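Many introductory courses stop at the sequence. We go one step further.
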Amino acid sequence: MLYRQKVEPCCTCCAHARPISSEAAVCLKRGIVALGGCCRKFSYDPLKRVPEAPRALIKKEHDPGEFEL
């Protein structure tokens, strides 16, 4: 599964909020709010989601015999 089913409400992913700095946003419903905050008017916007960094691959030495038929 690529995405979590339940999204924690926060202003960074809300359709009503527009970021103005790294710590604040302008909400169409509430005015200037903190990006980590949330309210009852939260509406999830999937296009504002920032994906997590991919996990690093674990490099393992392979035996050449593993590739023989």
